[in-house]
Design goal:
The complex is a heterodimer of chains A (129) and B (303).
Chain A (H helix, E strand, L loop, with lengths): L26 H4 L10 E8 L6 E9 L2 H12 L7 E6 L11 H5 L23
Antiparallel strand pairs in A: 1-2, 1-3
Chain B lengths: L2 H9 L30 H9 L7 H22 L8 H26 L6 H6 L10 H4 L5 H22 L5 H29 L3 H14 L11 H9 L9 H14 L22 H15 L6
Helix pairs in contact in B: 2-4, 3-4, 3-10, 4-8, 7-8, 7-9, 7-11, 8-9
Classes of the chains: A alpha+beta (129), B mainly alpha (303).
């Protein structure tokens, strides 16, 4: 490796998806998209802004395959020095909670203040709390 | 980061430009922080030139003009793709590459302008066609997407070999510009190679167009690797690189992509060239007319 990367291989943040398999389009994404047009699949992009932090959802984009999705993500979401790492995930590989089930899903914890540490009084003599 | 700190970061400049990229550390990073980063900017070079810290020799200025013009004309060509690329994402990708090239052009031209107390704008907007030193490859029309990718493929593999070696130039400013540019051009290599493989391996139509694209672009490869008195003199002084010395690595690495794509390297006679002496094809005049018209209609205008 030279100080300027590997001259033998073009720069790529996509080392892990360099295999030819990564160039195979995700078929299920291209079917019936955008009124039957042969559209690129939708990918969700997660960017980690710094070492030690988590990847955070940044947005989405279209790409024909994973390797190109990473490159498009680099161009769309790290233009202003936002990231040190990118994940891309096919949008339909993400299972999401049903917005209509908000009550059943998310209201149950409300009022259960015993689930918070602040509910409890400190026992006498316990240090470093 | 507090606003005061932000402001300070912006006004302290970037230190010794011969160092290139100065490390700023990531210790204060937060999840939402966005910074411009810390790297050599064209403005830094213009400042060095204005204050007399850096001044090119006549030979180096002429050489910087060649590299700057290559990048400038390509940036102008690529800019035309904005809003016209096959997909929005590719629009942004080509726009990014155009802006990278424009940045390199501004750096080289700012430096070249130091010879006669001019500015990058004087050189970009107020020179005439025969005063431009770009090679013919860069002024070739965009054609369809495949032609543009073929041109990008040749340009990026050529520029990578050139800038990689130029980082060791005895001219500190050329070396610093090259050190910043080589990383960006490395990404351009990846972008074009990815597309070559996909277009060749895509549909019959995309394959046919990619092969045609290479046939259109390949005649202009020869001029890139021609030495002349200037490059020989500068190479002997260690300031520049003999273009011919890049050819072997260019052939080998582009050859690997052709091999992976199962394509033959195009066998076409090379065009005569002449761009380095100010002799251009019929295309450059139109590029310049569009690029220069506003600055010439309203000299000194700003917004």
């Amino acid at each position: 490796m030279s100080p300027h990367g590997n001259p033998e291989v073009p720069a790529s943040s996509a080392g892990a998806v360099e295999s030819s398999a990564a160039k195979v389009p995700v078929e299920s994404h291209t079917e019936g998209g955008a009124a039957g047009r042969n559209a690129w699949g939708l990918w969700e992009v997660f960017v980690r802004s710094s070492r030690g932090l988590s990847h955070v959802h940044a947005g989405s984009l279209h790409a024909p395959d994973a390797a190109m999705a990473l490159r498009n993500a680099r161009d769309l979401y790290t233009r202003r020095n936002e990231g040190v790492s990118i994940w891309v995930v096919p949008a339909d590989a993400i299972a999401s909670s049903d917005p209509d089930a908000k009550g059943a899903f998310f209201e149950s914890p409300q009022g259960k203040d015993y689930r918070h540490a602040t509910y409890y009084t400190k026992s006498e003599g316990v240090k470093h709390l | 980061m507090t606003p005061e700190q932000t402001e300070q970061t912006e006004t302290t400049g970037h230190g010794d430009i011969s160092v290139g990229v100065a490390g700023s550390g990531d210790s204060s990073a937060s999840a939402t922080r966005i910074t411009p980063g810390n790297a050599l900017r064209p403005e830094d070079i213009a400042l060095e030139v204005r204050t007399g810290l850096a001044k090119p020799t006549e030979d180096v200025a002429e050489y910087a003009l060649r590299l700057g013009d290559d990048a400038l004309i390509l940036a102008q060509r690529l800019g035309h793709w904005i809003s016209r690329a096959p997909e929005l994402e590719e629009d942004v990708a080509l726009g990014n590459i155009a802006l990278d090239q424009l940045g390199h052009a501004r750096s080289f031209l700012s430096y070249a302008a130091g010879l006669n107390d001019k500015t990058e704008d004087d050189l970009a907007y107020f020179r005439r066609e025969h005063e431009f030193r770009s090679a013919h490859l860069f002024e070739q029309p965009n054609g369809d997407f495949a032609v543009t990718i073929a041109r990008q493929f040749v340009v990026s593999y050529y520029q990578f070999e050139l800038y990689r070696r130029l980082t060791e130039s005895t001219d500190a400013t050329l070396a610093a510009i090259a050190a910043k540019a080589v990383k960006e051009v490395d990404y351009h290599r990846d972008h074009s190679a990815q597309w070559v493989l996909r277009l060749v391996g895509g549909t019959d139509e995309s394959r046919r167009r990619m092969i045609d694209g290479f046939k259109i672009i390949w005649p202009y490869v020869g001029e890139l690797f021609v030495d002349d008195e200037l490059t020989t003199r500068l190479a002997e002084a260690g300031a520049a690189v003999e273009p011919s010395s890049l050819k072997a690595d260019f052939d080998r690495l582009t050859g690997e992509v052709f091999q992976e794509a199962e394509l033959e390297v195009p066998e076409v006679p090379f065009a005569p060239g002449g761009g380095r002496r100010g002799q251009h094809s019929e295309h450059l005049g139109y590029v310049l007319a569009e690029m220069q018209v506003l600055a010439r209609e309203h000299p000194g205008a700003s917004w």
